[in-house]
C-alpha cells in the first residue's frame, strides 16, 4: 500500500490571452461553452473529481490571466503544481511561438524539484475555426516542438465543440498523478498508470 | 440617582433635560426621518424605551439621549435609536453631529450578539455587535429596561445566552456548536480581560465604557511591551470596540493620563506619540515595540473630530438634475465642490445626470469652470482626440505588416472588447458600434500613452464610461483622467498593485488584527485573492449599475482617496468568521472571494467602509504609502516607464 495517498492534483493552464484557457477548463469541467467569457483577471480554478482504477482524485485546474504583464503573480499561483498545460491557438503563430516563454517562465516561477521531468501537456486549440482554413500552425510543426522539449504529449482541441477535450484532460490528470507519485514516493506497483520506467511519448496513449 | 465617579458628573444637566424631553411627546419629525422600513405601514413597535443614551465622551454635557425601539415588520425585527431633538445642553454637539449617531432600522439579521453590562454603580448598558464585527457604541438605559429589551428580542428573534458568559446573548446563532463557541468566545474574552486579576488597577466602580477602554487600550500596549500572551485578548477587546474612534480614543487617553497620576501604571512607562500610537499596534510576538520619545501634549478637546463615532451613514437617494442645479452658479461653476462630493458620496448620481457629473468627479472638468469654458474644452479635446486617433488610423496594411507591436496591441484589444460586458444590451450585438468604439478608444489610448499601452482590465474600466458618456471623444478624455490615477495598476512591474495590496494588509492589521494574524498563519499576506477587486475597482464583483454607483462614490475622494481599500477591508470583515471558521487556505480563499461576485450588498459594504475609514483615521492613512493609486503618481516619468522587452506592449 502507498505510504501516503494523494487526493489533490494541481494543474496550471498557461498560454497567451484569448487562446481559450478558460473555455477549455469550462468545457472539461462543466461541459459548457459560452461565447461570453470575460478576460480572466488574476486567477481562478475549477475542480473535478477523476477516477483512476479504484481511486478518486480531485483535479484542481488553475486558469490564469493570459497577458504577460501579469506574470509576476504566477509565483503565488504556480507553486505546488503537478502538471502544466500549455495552450496555443492553431490560428495564431505568435501564440505558438510564445509557448517556449510560457514554459520557461513556469519553470522559473514554480521551481519544481525536477524541472527536466516536470510534466507538461500542449494543446493546440480552436481547430474548429473556419473549418481549419485559417490555421497557421501545422500539427507537424507543433509535434516537432513538443518532441524537442522531452516528448511533451500533444492534443489538438476545440473547446467550442468539445473535440478531444476529455482525452486531453485524461492525459493531463494521468501525468499530474505520475508527477505526484514521483515526488511522494509511492510503492511503484500500486497503480498500473505511471510506473516509473514508462517513458513519456509524443502522443498520449490514454 | 446612583453615585457617579468623578468623570461622570452627577449634576447632569443633560440627564435632567432628557427626563423632561422623554416625558413630553416626541418630536414627530424624528421618526419621520427614518429612512428605511422602520415605521412604515405594517410595522409594529414591540418595545419602546425613552432616555436611552450614548456617551460619546466622558463629558456629561455631551451625552446624547434618545429613544430606543424594537419594531417588528414583515416577520423581521428591527432596532432603532433616535436622539432627541433640541437638546440644547450640549454646546459642542450640533444637531447634525447627533444625527450621525442615529441608529436607523438595523435588522436583527445583521446583529451577532448583545452584551449586557451591569456596573455595580451607574447605569446598565448594552453593546450591540453586528455580524460584520462592527459594534454600536454602548447604549445606557437611564430608566432601566435592559431585561425587558432582551426579553422582547427573544420573543421575536432567535436569541440564546452564551454558554461561556451569562451576559452575552447571541442572535441568529443557528450554527453548529463549534461556531457557537467561537462566536461567543469573542465578547466574553473581552470581559475576562477587563475582570482578570491582572487588571487589579482597573477602575472597579461604575466606570463608563470610555474609562474601561482607556485602561484596556493602555494595557494592550503594556502587554505588547511585555510580550504577554494575554495581549491577544486585549486586541480582541479593542477589535470589539472597533467603533470607538479617535474621538473616544483621545478622550480615553486623556483619562488615562489622569489615571497615571493615581499610580495605576508603572512609572517607567514610555510616553507615547499620540498620532501613531493611539490605536494599538499589533507587533510581532518577539518584536518589542520601541515607542518614540515624545512630549505628551494633552489633546485639545476642540480638535476632536465629532464625526468620528459613526458607523456609516445610511445611503441617500441619488443626486438628481434639480438638486444638481442648486450646486451651480449662474455661469455653471460648482460653488462648493466639497458639498457636491459629500452628497454623491452618500447617494451617488442618477443615471441621466452621470454624463455631466462624472466629468467633474474624474477630473476631466474642473469644478470652477463655467459652461462656456467647458463647451470650449470639449471642442478642443474633440479635435485633439481625432489627431491622436489618426496616428493609428493612418497606418496602412503594408506598414502594419512591419509593425509587430501595433498588430499585437490591436489584436489584444480586439480580443478583449468582444468579451467586455456583452450581457449589457449596450454591448450585446455582435457587430455593435459600441464595441468598435471601445476598441478605437483603447487603441487611441495606447498611442496617447504608448509606454503604458494596453493591458487587460482597461476595457472593464472603459466600458461603463462609454455607456455613460455615449460619445467617443468625451469617453476617451474621461478614461484618460481615470488612468491618471489608475494607470499604475497596469504597470509591468505591478508596483501600483503591490503598493495597494500592501496598504490593504496594513489596514487589515490595524482594523482586524485577528484576521490579519489568520492570513499570516495561512501565508496569505500577499492579498492576491483581492487582486481583481483592486485592479478594476470591483468591476467584476457587482452588476453593472452597482459598479457605476460604487465608482462614483469612490471618485468623490470624500472620506479618503483610498476608500476602495476600506471597501476591501469591509468585505473581508463581513466574512471573517466564515473565513476563519472554515480554515480557508490561500486556494480556498481565492475561490471564495471570486465566488462572492454578485453576492455583495453594496450599500451595507459602503456603510461599513465609511465607518472603518473613520475609525482608522490618521492611522489608516499612514498605512497607505504616498503615491499609492488612485493618488496621483509622485513622479509621472518614472511611474510610466516601461521596459522595452514588454512583448505584449
From TrEMBL, chain A:
GO cellular component, one term: endomembrane system
Annotated localization: Endomembrane system
UniProt xrefs under SUPFAM superfamilies: P-loop containing nucleoside triphosphate hydrolases (SSF52540)
Main location: membrane
One Gene Ontology molecular-function label: GTP binding
Record field: transmembrane: none
Matching InterPro entries: P-loop_NTPase, Small_GTP-bd, Small_GTPase
Domain of life assignment: Eukaryota
Pfam families the UniProt entry points to: Ras
Key words of the record: GTP-binding, Lipoprotein, Membrane, Methylation, Nucleotide-binding, Prenylation, Protein transport, Transport
Topology class, membrane: Lipid-anchor
GO terms (BP aspect): protein transport
Family: Belongs to the small GTPase superfamily. Rab family.
Name under which the protein is recorded: Ras-related protein RABG3f
UniProtKB/TrEMBL annotation, chain B:
Domain of life: Eukaryota
GO-annotated cellular components: cytoplasm
UniProt-listed Gene3D superfamilies: 2.30.29.230, putative rabgap domain of human tbc1 domain family member 14 like domains, Ypt/Rab-GAP domain of gyp1p, domain 3
Feature: compositional bias, Low complexity: 23-37
Protein name: TBC1 domain family member 15
PANTHER family hit by this protein: SMALL G PROTEIN SIGNALING MODULATOR 2-RELATED (PTHR22957:SF502), TBC1 DOMAIN FAMILY MEMBER GTPASE-ACTIVATING PROTEIN (PTHR22957)
Cellular compartments annotated: Cytoplasm
Keyword list, A-Z: Acetylation, Cytoplasm, GTPase activation, Phosphoprotein
Binding partners and assembly: Interacts with non-phosphorylated form of RAB8A; phosphorylation of RAB8A at 'Thr-72' disrupts this interaction. Interacts with ARMC12.
GN (gene name): LOC104211041
Pfam families per the UniProt record, alphabetical: PH_RBD, RabGAP-TBC
Domain (Rab-GAP TBC): residue spans on this chain: 348-558
SMART domains, per the entry: TBC
Glycoprotein found in the keyword field: no
Main location: cytoplasm
Species of provenance: Nicotiana sylvestris (Wood tobacco)
InterPro entries (alphabetical): Rab-GAP-TBC_dom (IPR000195), Rab-GAP_TBC_sf (IPR035969), SGSM1/2_RBD (IPR021935)
SUPFAM superfamilies hit by this protein: Ypt/Rab-GAP domain of gyp1p (SSF47923)
Function: Acts as a GTPase activating protein for RAB7A. Does not act on RAB4, RAB5 or RAB6.
Single GO term (MF): GTPase activator activity
Positions of the UniProt region annotated as Disordered: 20-40
Amino acid at each position: 500500500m502507498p505510504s501516503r495517498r494523494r487526493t489533490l492534483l494541481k494543474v496550471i493552464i498557461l498560454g497567451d490571452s484569448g487562446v481559450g484557457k478558460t473555455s477549455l477548463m469550462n468545457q472539461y469541467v462543466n461541459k459548457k461553452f459560452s461565447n461570453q467569457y470575460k478576460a480572466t483577471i488574476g486567477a481562478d480554478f475549477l475542480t473535478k473529481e477523476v477516477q483512476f482504477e479504484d481511486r478518486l482524485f480531485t483535479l484542481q485546474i488553475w486558469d490564469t490571466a493570459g497577458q504577460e504583464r501579469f506574470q509576476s503573480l504566477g509565483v503565488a499561483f504556480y507553486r505546488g503544481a503537478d502538471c502544466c498545460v500549455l495552450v496555443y491557438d492553431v490560428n495564431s503563430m505568435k501564440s505558438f511561438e510564445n509557448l517556449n516563454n510560457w514554459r520557461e517562465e513556469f519553470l522559473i516561477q514554480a521551481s519544481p524539484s525536477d524541472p527536466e521531468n516536470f510534466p507538461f501537456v500542449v494543446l493546440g486549440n480552436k481547430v474548429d475555426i473556419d473549418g481549419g482554413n485559417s490555421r497557421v500552425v501545422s500539427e507537424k510543426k507543433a509535434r516537432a516542438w513538443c518532441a524537442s522539449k522531452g516528448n511533451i504529449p500533444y492534443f489538438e482541441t476545440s473547446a467550442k465543440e468539445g473535440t478531444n477535450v476529455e482525452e486531453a484532460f485524461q492525459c493531463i490528470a494521468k501525468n499530474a498523478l505520475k508527477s505526484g507519485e514521483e515526488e511522494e514516493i509511492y510503492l511503484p506497483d500500486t497503480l498500473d498508470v505511471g510506473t516509473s520506467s514508462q517513458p513519456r511519448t509524443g502522443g498520449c496513449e490514454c | 440617582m446612583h453615585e457617579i465617579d468623578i468623570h461622570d458628573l452627577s449634576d447632569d444637566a443633560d440627564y435632567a433635560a432628557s427626563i423632561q424631553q422623554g416625558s413630553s411627546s416626541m418630536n414627530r419629525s424624528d421618526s419621520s426621518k427614518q429612512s428605511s422600513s422602520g415605521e412604515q405601514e405594517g410595522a409594529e413597535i414591540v418595545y419602546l424605551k425613552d432616555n436611552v443614551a450614548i456617551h460619546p465622551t466622558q463629558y456629561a454635557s455631551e451625552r446624547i439621549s434618545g429613544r430606543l425601539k424594537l419594531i417588528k415588520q414583515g416577520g423581521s425585527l428591527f432596532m432603532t435609536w433616535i436622539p432627541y431633538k433640541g437638546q440644547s445642553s450640549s454646546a459642542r454637539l450640533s444637531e447634525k453631529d447627533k444625527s450621525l449617531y442615529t441608529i436607523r432600522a438595523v435588522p436583527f439579521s445583521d446583529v451577532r450578539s448583545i452584551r449586557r453590562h451591569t456596573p455595580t454603580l451607574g447605569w446598565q448598558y448594552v453593546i450591540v455587535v453586528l455580524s460584520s464585527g462592527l459594534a454600536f457604541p454602548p447604549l445606557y438605559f437611564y430608566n432601566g429596561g435592559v431585561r425587558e429589551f432582551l426579553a422582547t428580542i427573544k420573543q421575536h428573534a432567535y436569541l440564546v445566552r452564551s454558554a461561556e458568559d451569562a451576559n452575552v446573548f447571541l442572535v441568529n446563532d443557528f450554527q453548529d456548536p463549534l461556531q457557537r463557541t467561537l462566536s461567543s468566545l469573542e465578547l466574553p474574552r473581552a470581559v475576562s480581560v477587563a475582570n482578570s486579576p491582572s487588571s487589579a488597577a482597573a477602575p472597579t466602580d461604575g466606570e463608563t465604557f470610555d474609562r474601561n477602554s482607556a485602561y484596556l487600550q493602555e494595557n494592550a500596549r503594556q502587554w505588547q511591551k511585555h510580550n504577554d500572551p494575554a495581549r491577544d485578548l486585549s486586541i480582541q477587546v479593542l477589535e470589539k470596540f472597533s467603533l470607538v474612534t479617535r474621538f473616544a480614543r483621545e478622550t480615553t487617553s486623556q483619562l488615562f493620563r489622569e489615571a497615571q497620576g493615581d499610580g495605576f501604571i508603572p512609572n517607567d512607562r514610555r510616553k507615547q506619540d499620540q498620532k501613531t500610537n493611539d490605536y494599538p499596534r499589533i507587533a510581532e510576538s518577539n518584536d518589542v515595540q520601541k515607542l518614540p520619545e515624545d512630549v505628551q501634549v494633552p489633546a485639545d478637546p476642540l480638535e476632536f473630530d465629532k464625526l468620528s463615532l459613526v458607523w456609516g451613514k445610511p445611503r441617500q437617494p441619488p443626486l438628481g438634475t434639480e438638486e444638481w442645479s442648486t450646486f451651480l452658479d449662474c455661469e455653471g461653476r460648482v460653488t462648493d465642490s466639497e458639498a457636491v462630493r459629500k452628497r454623491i458620496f452618500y447617494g451617488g448620481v442618477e443615471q441621466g445626470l452621470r454624463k455631466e457629473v462624472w466629468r467633474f468627479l474624474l477630473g476631466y472638468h474642473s469644478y470652477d469652470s463655467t459652461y462656456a469654458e467647458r463647451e470650449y474644452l470639449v471642442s478642443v479635446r474633440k479635435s485633439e482626440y481625432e489627431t491622436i486617433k489618426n496616428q493609428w488610423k493612418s497606418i496602412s496594411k503594408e506598414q502594419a505588416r512591419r509593425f509587430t507591436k501595433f498588430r499585437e496591441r490591436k489584436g489584444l484589444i480586439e480580443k478583449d472588447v468582444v468579451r467586455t460586458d456583452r450581457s449589457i444590451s449596450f454591448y450585446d450585438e455582435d457587430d455593435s458600434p459600441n464595441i468598435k468604439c471601445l476598441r478605437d478608444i483603447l487603441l487611441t489610448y495606447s498611442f496617447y500613452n504608448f509606454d503604458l499601452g494596453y493591458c487587460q482590465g482597461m476595457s472593464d474600466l472603459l466600458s461603463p464610461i462609454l455607456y455613460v458618456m455615449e460619445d467617443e471623444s468625451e469617453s476617451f478624455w474621461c478614461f484618460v483622467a481615470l488612468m491618471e490615477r489608475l494607470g499604475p495598476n497596469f504597470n509591468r512591474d505591478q508596483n501600483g498593485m503591490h503598493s495597494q495590496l500592501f496598504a490593504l494588509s496594513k489596514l487589515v492589521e490595524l482594523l482586524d488584527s485577528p484576521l490579519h494574524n489568520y492570513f499570516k498563519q495561512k501565508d496569505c499576506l500577499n492579498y492576491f485573492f483581492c487582486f481583481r477587486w483592486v485592479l478594476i475597482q470591483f468591476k467584476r464583483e457587482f452588476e453593472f449599475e452597482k459598479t457605476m454607483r460604487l465608482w462614483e462614490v469612490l471618485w468623490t475622494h470624500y472620506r479618503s482617496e483610498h476608500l476602495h481599500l476600506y471597501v476591501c477591508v469591509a468585505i473581508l470583515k463581513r466574512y471573517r468568521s466564515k473565513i476563519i471558521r472554515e480554515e480557508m487556505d490561500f486556494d480556498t480563499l481565492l475561490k471564495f472571494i471570486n465566488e462572492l461576485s454578485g453576492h455583495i450588498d453594496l450599500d451595507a459594504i459602503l456603510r461599513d467602509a465609511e465607518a472603518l475609514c473613520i475609525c482608522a483615521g490618521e492611522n489608516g492613512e499612514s498605512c497607505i504609502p504616498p503615491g499609492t493609486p488612485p493618488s496621483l503618481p509622485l513622479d509621472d516619468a518614472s511611474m510610466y516607464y516601461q521596459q522595452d522587452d514588454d512583448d505584449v506592449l
